[in-house]
Write a structure and sequence with these properties.
Shape: globular
Distance between the termini: 58 Å
Strand content: under 5%
Helix content: over 70%
């Protein structure tokens, strides 16, 4: 049965790579948030926040999947191969350039989806982007060494989304953490 599903997935990926990668990101971000809400940071007072899961899942579908499709496709074309120097270069580009861009997209999307002001979003980015970037290094540097060395280019986003489920628990927590005080908002507005 798994073999048949894997085969069907690969056929669909070949026919509609952008859509399938967006759907795998939707799945990864949705599962990550469900796990975060149910097991990591359950809110006993408010209960399960379905709209939070919708926001995270839609980010996966609308932003993570499509941008990942194009970014990793571009990266593989610009720097082909799996030699260690090539892999190290790709990991460095991913973590030093793409990672902060991704974090800004993530916090901006969530803020806009929640109806927050640009000042609130700016404060969120200022407050939490460094934590997100550094936190990413612990997961994604080793994961991307495997990714760029052993995973075929067309399977990269599936591999990333498999790991992303666990990482999304962290992102879900961080993305939904409140900015501490109005002082942060005032500082960001300056």
């Amino acid at each position: 049965m798994f073999g048949r599903l894997w085969s069907q997935y690969n056929v669909a990926l070949e026919k509609n790579p952008l859509l399938i990668k967006a759907l795998t990101s939707l799945t990864g971000f949705t599962i990550g948030d469900v796990l975060a809400q149910k097991f990591v940071t359950p809110d006993e007072e408010k209960g399960y926040d379905l709209m939070r899961t919708v926001r995270l899942g839609s980010f996966g579908f609308l932003v993570h999947g499509p941008t990942g499709h194009f970014f990793y496709g571009w990266l593989d074309k610009q720097i082909p191969g799996t030699a260690m120097k090539t892999v190290a270069t790709k990991v460095a580009i991913d973590q030093l350039l793409w990672n902060p861009c991704f974090g800004v997209m993530f916090f901006s999307y969530l803020g806009l989806a929640e109806g927050k002001s640009f000042t609130d979003i700016q404060a969120k980015i200022k407050n939490d982007l460094p934590t997100a970037v550094v936190g990413s290094w612990t997961v994604w540097i080793p994961a991307h060494f495997i990714n760029f060395r052993f995973v075929p280019s067309n399977q990269r986003l599936l591999y990333i989304n498999s790991i992303q489920i666990g990482y999304n628990i962290f992102l879900s927590f961080l993305g939904n953490k409140k900015v501490d005080d109005s002082e942060e908002l005032k500082a960001a507005a300056k």
